[in-house]
Every structure is written in C-alpha cells, then in structure tokens.
Amino acid sequence: MGSGQWKVEKRSSFRSDSFSKEYETVPETGCLSIIVLGASGDLAKKKTFPALYNLYRRGFLQSNEVYIFGYARTKISDDDLRNRIRGDILAKMLQSTLKMYQQIKYVSGSYDTEDGFRLLDKEISEHEVSKNSAEGSSRRLFYLALPPSVYPPVCRMIRKCCMNRADLGGWTRIVIEKPFGKDLESAEKLSAQIGELFEEPQLYRIDHYLGKELVQNLLVLRFANRFFLPLWNRDNIQIVFREDFGTEGRGGYFDEYGIIRDIIQNHLLQLCLVAMEKPVSLKPEHIRDEKVKVLQSVLPIKDEEVVLGQYEGYRDDPTVPDHSNTPTFATVVLRIHNERWEGVPFILKAGKALNSRKAEIRVQFKDVPGDIFKCQKQGRNEFVIRLQPSEAMYMKLTVKQPGLEMSTVQSELDLSYKQRYQGVAIPEAYERLILDTIRGDQQHFVRRDELKAAWEIFTPLLHRIDDGEMKPLQYQPGSRGPVEADELLAKAGYVQTHGYIWIPPTL
Ligand SMILES: NC(=O)C1=CN([C@@H]2O[C@H](COP(=O)(O)OP(=O)(O)OC[C@H]3O[C@@H](n4cnc5c(N)ncnc54)[C@H](OP(=O)(O)O)[C@@H]3O)[C@@H](O)[C@H]2O)C=CC1
Ligand SMILES: O=C1O[C@H](COP(=O)(O)O)[C@@H](O)[C@H](O)[C@H]1O
Q1: Which end of the chain has fewer CB within 10 Å, C or N?
Q2: Shortest-distance Cα residue to atom 4 of ligand 2
Q3: 262 lines ligand 2 (CB under 6 A)
Q4: Tens digits of per-residue pLDDT, 391-423?
Q5: Mutation test of ligand 2: which of 46, 267, 352, 430 has the most ligand atoms closer than 8 Å to its C-beta?
C-alpha cells in the first residue's frame, strides 16, 4: 500500500491530541456513511444502534450528513431493521429521531462474496451522490458487529468493493470488536490478515471499557493531581469485575473463551492505564506507547498465583459441554518488573454469577508505621475508583470519631458522580468510542503491539487451562467466588476490611 494513499489519516493523527486546540476546531464535515455489518445481531441491537441513536439525538451526527447502513445475511427489509432497532431504543421517540430512522438502509448479502458488497457500495455511493459529495471526500465507517471468524473475509470484501477514495479528505475506517483472537498465535494471525488490507490508522479495535467515564478519567486523575504522584507505587492494587448473573444464553460463546479471554485479557488489562508511566503528551501514540511498555514489563504468571472457578449450574446450559473446564471466575496476580511496581501485586479478579455487579480499581495502602492510635483494625487506607454501577471515587481513611472521646473511625472522602454532577448524563462507552472513530482519535483503541503484549501475558496460562492442567473450583452462584481466591488475596498482602459500611451520600 503506497504511503501517500492515506493522506487524511496522517492529518487525523495531527488532530488526535484530544486536548489540543486544533482538535476542537478542525471541522469533520462531508458525507458520512456508517455501515453496521452484522446488523441483525445482538451487539448491533443492544449497543451499536442505540449509541448511534444517542449521538444523533445529542447532535453529534447531523441528519444532512449521515446515513446508516445495516448489512447481514438475514433477509429483512429496511423497515424490519428500523423496527428491530426502534423496539430496543426508546419507546418515547422524539420527532428528531424519526428523521434518523428514515436514514437507515438495510442491505442483505453474504460475508465472503462480492455481490452483496458491490450492492452495498452502490447504495453508499448513491447516498454520497445525493449529498453532492465529491468522490474522495466522503467518510465511510465500517463497524464489524460480527463473530471474529468472519473478520478476514469481510475486510477483504470491504477492501475490494467498498473503499472510499481518500484524496479529498475522505476516509475508510474499520471498527473491530473483541475477541481479537484466542491466544497469541491466533491474534497475530488475525492482525496479519487484516494488516495486509488496512493500515493501523484505519483500524479501531474497540474495547468498550476504554470508553467508560472513569477509565477516561484515569490519566487526568493520575497526572493532573500532585498529591497522587508520590503515592502511586504501592501497596497492592486490585482490579475487580463482578457480575451477578451467569452466561445467560451466551453459554456457547462463553465456553469457547472463558472469563480470562472474555474479561481479564482485555477489559481488565486495559486498566494498565493505572500502572503506566506518564506519557510524553496526550497524543494517542504517546499514551499507547506507555501502555505497551508496562504490559511488556509483566512477568510470567505463576500457577500458584491463580485461582480459577466455575459456578455450580454453569454446565446445565445445553450449549455448554458436560465436562467443560472453562472458568467463569479467575483471580490472577500480575507482577510488574519495573522501578515503580517491583514487589507490588496487581490482583485481577473477574467472575460471573457472583454476589454483586461491580467494576472497580482499588489501591490499598499498608498500615501506618508506628501507629499511635492502634487503629489498624478499622481498616487500611484505600483509594477506590468505581467504574460501575454509580461512578465514584472515594478514599477510605481514618478520622477522629466526632464527639468528646478521642477515638478513631473509618470514613471516606467521597466523589460520587451522581451527587456531584447532577443533571450531567454520562455517555455510554460505545457512544464515545464511535464518536472517537469518526473524529479519528485512536487514543482509546487497542493498538496492534498492545494486543500482542496482552496476549503474551496470558497465553501460557490459557494453554495450561485449555490442556486441562489447571482446573476451576466450583463455587455457589451468588457467592464471592471460591474461598481460595480470598486466601490468595490475603497471601498477596491484601487486608480485607471488616465491619465498615459505606453509607451512600444523600443530598
Ligand atoms: N453481544 C454482546 O454483548 C457483545 C458482543 N461483542 C462482540 O461483538 C461481535 C458481535 O457480537 P454479537 O452481536 O453478540 O454476535 P451475534 O452472534 O449476534 O452475530 C452477529 C451477526 O453475525 C451473523 N453471524 C452469526 N454467526 C455467524 C457465523 N458463524 N458466520 C457468519 N455470520 C454469523 C449473524 O447475522 P446474519 O446471519 O444475519 O448474517 C448475526 O446476526 C462479536 O465479535 C462479539 O464477541 C463484544 C462485546 C459484547
Ligand atoms: O465484553 C463483555 O462485557 C460485558 C460486561 O460489560 P459491562 O459494560 O456491562 O461491564 C460482559 O457481560 C460480557 O461477558 C463480555 O463479553
């Protein structure tokens, strides 16, 4: 591929410093086609179309510029697709959204032959012509809401039949959903196949955790606040994902992947934003360089620092094999071999069918040396960043119990978003990430070398599980997971706080 061909992509990297003035002011105009491949599927219905709807409603997609195309094999009409989307999106449709529905077109075709993609290209071109868009100035965003097995043929077809000429400021971008492979080898193979067709600036590997409000806040929090700087190198860090429901009809998919591939290798590892060094600037490449560096510093995982679980009843799902060895729960301790993090355990924990739904980052500090208040029993200082539910950041600390006595109590400095930012609607992760794609900002997307580094960490462990060398322990649905996981946490130095009850702030 000639390097001069992607003029526009180069311009976007200049713009993609998210906080720069240029970014704010360079307009992205011109006809925009958003093509959702796999439009008949679950993700498209649950996430992609609602995100597009919200962007439209908030004015980020202009009716005079945007047209939305659905593509899949299922034979349905434009109206069928509109009704499917409408069913899920809001019964309370506003006048403005009706307009959006007129701008949705469905094309049916297969994923590996040219006919359907030629037809799709014809429809997109007709729309571009109707908008008087000069050839080469239009923008085409292909969103692959599809099983990864069809990414290579679909990318080949797009490359062959649906590319936009980029010589007048237009572009073609591809959004790919996880899972990006099943291990290092398959991920590298997939990357190579797609990499032959598209250059890295055209590829947006989406990990929706990177679109969550508090994940986006991590860099600001860490590098714009002086008082965190000296503290950010201890004492143990837990990154936790819990769901209070099981695989719910996705057992077939899940059993092929398991909790490490489904959640830990991607979503939780993205939170390496917590561990990376300060980037040179906010340019996406500078940030992604630092993420790669920290991932490459992770030492091989030791079997004794892993606890796997499978909830009782998981195998009752008819799509799950009777003797499945797939973990639905895992606690894994990562060790980062660099100056900042030597000796600090990073505990990644994820599980389905647990006692609550929560995702958070928890930094725990060791006991105060020479404590004159004898207050360790009340719990250690902790700084918690809660991604969901109810976004919040809070610091658990020891204070004097109000009153005449000199006694101590554990309390918190609390920044609960609902209370502090009343009336502010926090956008859905997918909305933000689709908008970033349109703007050409790759900061919150996974770069190819980052993906490789992530798979390098987990592949040996995954192969041992796949080969049956490591077995998940059974746990009760609705519990905390296997008790052995709590024992591992304790061994890693985490001290659980007992008796502390967080009281949600009221107005
Ligand atoms: N669903 C979710 O909550 C999430 C999904 N993802 C990822 O997003 C992508 C899409 O997920 P999801 O929508 O759930 O997937 P679906 O299983 O619903 O598949 C999407 C569409 O792809 C087509 N399809 C399904 N199976 C095959 C196949 N074997 N070969 C060719 N085409 C097929 C079907 O369309 P048709 O038959 O009409 O062509 C289907 O409607 C996946 O990569 C998934 O891992 C990521 C995060 C969450
Ligand atoms: O990617 C996935 O994420 C969801 C959890 O997403 P969240 O935004 O609701 O936290 C998880 O349920 C699913 O198994 C996984 O594939």
Answers
A1: C
A2: 263
A3: yes
A4: 999 999 999 999 998 888 889 999 999 989 998
A5: 267
CATH code of the domain covering residue 153: 3.40.50.720
Residue type, 5: Q
The ipTM estimated for the assembled molecules is: 0.92
Q: Check pLDDT > 80 for residue 6.
A: no
Q: Is 267 a catalytic residue?
A: yes
CA distance readout (Å), 414 to 226, 265, 502: 18, 30, 10
CB under 6 Å to ligand 1: residues? 38, 40-44, 46, 72-74, 111, 145-150, 177-179
> What is the tally of structural domains in the chain?
2
pLDDT number for residue 460: 98
Sequence-separated (6 or more) residues with CB below 8 Å from residue 228: 221, 222
Tens of pLDDT along 203-247?
A: 999 999 999 999 999 999 999 999 888 888 878 899 999 999 999
Measured in angstroms, how far is the CA atom of residue 411 from the centroid of ligand 2?
32
Give the separation between CA 294 and CA 340, rounded to whole angstroms: 10
Q: In terms of residues, how long is the chain? A: 507
Asked if residue 156 and residue 258 are part of one domain, the reply reads no
The reply to whether ligand 2 has any atom less than 6 angstroms from the CB of 431 is: no
Asked if the structure places residue 82 within a domain, the reply is yes
Quick check: helix, strand or coil at residue 407?
coil
C-beta separation of 84 from 127 below 8 A? no
Question: Are residue 218 and residue 161 in the same domain, yes or no?
Answer: no
Same domain, 74 and 139: yes
Cα angle 91, 93, 96 (rounded to 5 degrees) comes to: 165
Burial class (CB within 10 angstroms; exposed 0-12, middle 13-18, buried 19+) of 454:
buried
Burial class (CB in 10 A: 0-12, 13-18, 19+), 115: exposed
The three-point CA angle 89-95-98 to 5° equals: 55
Q: How confident is the model at residue 58 (pLDDT cuts 50, 70, 90)?
A: confident
Ligand number with the minimum distance to the CA of 266: 2
pTM of the model: 0.90
Q: Which of 267, 337, 444, 498 is catalytic?
A: 267
Mutate to test the pocket of ligand 2, among 178, 208, 356, 361 (most ligand atoms within 8 A of CB): 208
